[in-house]
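re: ur question from yesterday

yeah so i grabbed the chain u mentioned. its 512 aa long if i counted rite. heres the sequnce exactly as i have it in my notes:
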Amino acid sequence: MDSHVIAYDLGTGGNKTSLYDEQGRCVAESFIAYPTSYPRTGWHEQRPEDWWDAIVAGTSAVLASSAVDPSSVVACGISGHSLGAVPLRGDGTLLRKATPIWSDTRATAQAAEFFKRTSEPEWYAATGNGFPAHLYSVFKTMWYRDNEPDMLAAAANVIGTKDFINYRLTGVISTDHSYASGTGVYDLTGGRYDADLVAASGLPAQLLPEIVASTDVLGELTAEAAETLGLPRGVSVVSGGVDNSCMALGARAMKPGRVYNSLGSSSWIAVTSASPLIDDRVRPYAFAHVVPGLFTSAVSTFAAGTSFRWVRDNLCRDLVAAAEASGEDVYELMTAEAASSPPGANGVLFNPSMAGGTSLNASPKIRGAFLNLDLGSTRSDLIRAAMEGIAVELRIALDELRRLTTLSDEMLVVGGGIRSVLWREILANAYNITIVKSNIDQQAAALGAAACAAVGSGVWNGFEFVDDVHDIESTTSPDPDTAAAYELMLPLFGKAEAHLSDLGDQVTRAEP
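ran it thru and got these structure tokens back, copy pasting raw so excuse formatting
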């Protein structure tokens, strides 16, 4: 009987449970959503028990839909959304029903306090933590100390999202290097917590969980977990990793120089390297890779798919209604209409900074805009301009990574958008690189978690097997003339970004 592994992709919107066979084929998958609550401005919280419930429901669903004998499941692994801070008592019970997730911004005062005691540039150089500092776990834990001192005093550990699930599976409290690299106190090149940074936080070092390898087997399922999941006790639970690093593995970026693009609600371009890419101007965010000795460093735009969704919801309501009536995909209808506009969208430009600025922008106050509209501009121009604006913004990110390291001459793109032929053409021409689409589109993080489980349990003898799982479905090479036209557009986008950044600052100052 073939062996199977289960992968849990614990994302911001829900958990995807996937069942893989020995050849790395996904034989069943299930997605269970859970809510995020916003009790105050800047507070983004989820209930860890909701994560567990989604794990349980997802496991039941994939076993039922696949008709796989549960006794063939030998291991499970997990990818978890980053920068979590889940406080537990010594007996492992939760001290908070809801805990802040990665996007929670409440800890700004704690980050400011921290940087009175240590240099912010030196902190970034050591940790590679290129997101806004207050998002990182240590500052959320400092917020607990300052605002809920009795709660934190009762805590034995503060752990991450996927580490809470691993605890529920095994009774073992630990983390892995990739997740630890998002704590805010992890020395990337040293591969350990930095004692000086921990001291600067003023927090007890014992709150931090032990760090193990992503492929380490934490133990077997507890009797309670096995019964709840409908799995045998002997299933090996492998530590897994943070979503960024699991996705890098699942997207074949497990060798230096390999680069991939995740095209989703937010979008980023990430490269794998033997050393983290640290640059104080652009601030790539770096994580330890789930593959030992490697790092994944990325530059992102916050609103890629979400900007395109805004276009859908505000400019294409008739297409939404038509798709609902016919059962078609509204994005296919939108891209079909966009294809009637030529490259360059008849001069219409779009800046996708609708969720604010990243390290690529001159100001965090920048906001998105359509530019150079005239009375002849059509909706097809606007849709195409939105696609091109997202692509060019990511091209700028790609150029920054090219400045810092050598990249491969092709790029795998994962995420929902890659199914569109037009998207692939626009990306190939905007990036001036061959775009590769494989059978792994929205399964990259799950495949990375599955690979950790397969390697850790001995089902696979190495990470290289991930290459064999990918079936290349298409390659899209840049058209020389169109790529040259996009090159000429780059300075225009740069000028627009500078003006919109300045405008964002001025509007903020003028607000009552």
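noticed a couple things. The mean pLDDT is 95. also The domain at 4-244 is CATH 3.30.420.40 (Nucleotidyltransferase; domain 5).
anyway ttyl
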